[in-house]
Amino acid sequence: MSDRKAPEKKLLKALAGEKTDSPPIWLMRQAGRYLPEYRKVRAEAGSFLDLCYSPKLAEEVTLQPIRRYGFDAAILFSDILVVPDALGQKVAFKEGEGPVLDPVTDSAGIAALGSPSGVKAALAPVYETVSRLKQSLPADVTLIGFAGAPWTVATYMVGGRGSPDQAAAKLLAYREPDTFQKLIDILVEATVEHLSAQVEAGAEALQIFDTWAGSLPELSFERFALKPARAIRAKLKARFPHVPVIAFPRGAGGMAEHYFRETGVEGLSLDTGVSPLVARDRLQPIGCLQGNLDPLLLVAGGAEMRAQAAHILEALGHGPFIFNLGHGIVPQTPPEHVGELVRLVKDFGA
Amino acid sequence: MSDRKAPEKKLLKALAGEKTDSPPIWLMRQAGRYLPEYRKVRAEAGSFLDLCYSPKLAEEVTLQPIRRYGFDAAILFSDILVVPDALGQKVAFKEGEGPVLDPVTDSAGIAALGSPSGVKAALAPVYETVSRLKQSLPADVTLIGFAGAPWTVATYMVGGRGSPDQAAAKLLAYREPDTFQKLIDILVEATVEHLSAQVEAGAEALQIFDTWAGSLPELSFERFALKPARAIRAKLKARFPHVPVIAFPRGAGGMAEHYFRETGVEGLSLDTGVSPLVARDRLQPIGCLQGNLDPLLLVAGGAEMRAQAAHILEALGHGPFIFNLGHGIVPQTPPEHVGELVRLVKDFGA
């Protein structure tokens, strides 16, 4: 690290453990349906996956919230399910129903998946989007690439759709742990390939979304959430020592501290249910934190939004910190509330 | 407490902070659809609420798992939504859809609710079930009464049904905190009345279910989950100093420690995502713990169920501890897996 130039961009500074004048801010799903300009592009794009695979349109929707709000980071417009799609599993997004996949439920289904080494060719349009963004983004905005974590992606691959309890994936993991491990191993490799290609195309930081980490009991969390994240972090570090990684093990609760230390990620994204005060004492000494305003506070706006955002800023804003939501922004969010939140965060410490 | 006789029943010993030879065991929703004898009674009972309000049938289904497995505790067969029903809000359970209520969405709706003092009369059949159970239960089995916590009950009352994000209740709480507080205050009183009547009828321990506690951000958790639980605990303590209370603030994560200390409850029930190792170090010094096997491990059974149950027992079984699931038992659970689990827990330490 001795030859590393100190980062100039605010978000990268925070991830390097440096204090910034006010915290950088971006919001999960900031390119999305709450924006009229997004809905316009989306309506013209065909399917949701068509939009993900159209570099020009994906570039445009990624840029929209940057233009409107001046966020400190842009996150590539894409989806965590492009990886199973690249591995040859049929993925469709049905209106009002979410993603639907032909489920992979046994050894034969796992053996039939394509090789992780094929991901880079299959997802070439995604990396073209990244290259375009690298050119078009303002100089002070950090470009974040991302992927789903193996466990969360596996819940969709095995279950065939989203589910409140991840029952299908859990039952496979509990009944045939070695079979399930094979799927996780494939996903570790595929995720490293996918994130590496994003870095090669211009991504400057990476986020790994483990939306369903919190539903795993300790022994399974260790095996299927923590270890894969650690392996991904280590492999990326070997290739790109200067690219920081943020992990979002949603709902990890008391296991977050162990996860943060053991995976070696630079940033930990906190869900809405994490106490900023506890996080300040137990997690911020380990590295940069990110989070965690309730997306529904952004819908409500007003005094309650301001008070709870201030609570987060006062607890965490004095250490390395990135302001964000505790989960993705929701479609019914009034765009003007986002503007007010951005001003509030930028004014912190001023 | 000086004139208090040491409890004889295993579950009450654990809640008094005493070590037991092997941990007592019961399972959330142990009277339920996974049992053929339950499905038989359920089919004859009319609606789900009819079953809750039929003392003879509710007694029978409460006893069924005790007969079959010899659990250390029986939990009254009832539902958390009998309280809004008693307050005059229309509640129906629709097959395959769950509970449906006429939503209470504003001050007028809250003002139209009945008085908490009417709960005891409205729910007389429930207390008759408790009285019957007091007579029919084996002498070594503890009878647990229960209620939903105000926040969780409010999510159903305001939303009109279950929801993955509790959006309706949160938006009311965020937009009109004082209006929402009035609803919470009514529910605190109603819950105290309901739990008191269960104790008067023979309940020996109480559990408060806050299923959605974990979705609240810190300031809201403090106001709408922790403070109501503390108020309920204090009011019950004044009336029934020797009746222990278990709270289940599901998903509370890092806030569980603060909640456990501040509410003064004797027992804390842990969800599946809580690390037994972290709980042993941070929570068990405060009081008795309960939990937290993944209900899907009980569906899967086999080596994985045994290994993860053993992990919980080894971490927590040496202090005051009640073995339970991390959430309610699910309908597809094979009854023989429950029998194996009970034997495994009873053999612990032998």
List the helices and strands and how they pair.
The structure is a homodimer of 350-residue chains.
Chain A: H1 10-15, H2 36-44, H3 48-52, H4 55-69, E1 73-75, H5 82-86, E2 91-94, E3 98-101, H6 107-111, H7 119-122, H8 124-136, E4 142-148, H9 150-159, H10 167-175, H11 177-201, E5 205-210, H12 218-239, E6 245-249, H13 256-263, E7 267-269, H14 276-282, E8 288-293, H15 295-300, H16 302-316, E9 321-325, H17 335-347
Parallel strand pairs in A: 1-4, 4-5, 5-6, 6-7, 7-8, 8-9
Antiparallel strand pairs in A: 2-3
Helix pairs in contact in A: 4-8, 8-11, 9-10, 9-11, 10-11, 11-12, 14-16, 16-17
Structural commentary:
The structure is a homodimer of 350-residue chains. With 350 residues, chain A is an alpha/beta fold. Chain A has one domain: TIM Barrel (Alpha-Beta Barrel), CATH 3.20.20.210. The first copy, chain A, has 17 helices and nine strands. In chain A, the strands form two sheets. Chain A has a seven-stranded parallel β-sheet. In chain A, α4 packs parallel to α8.
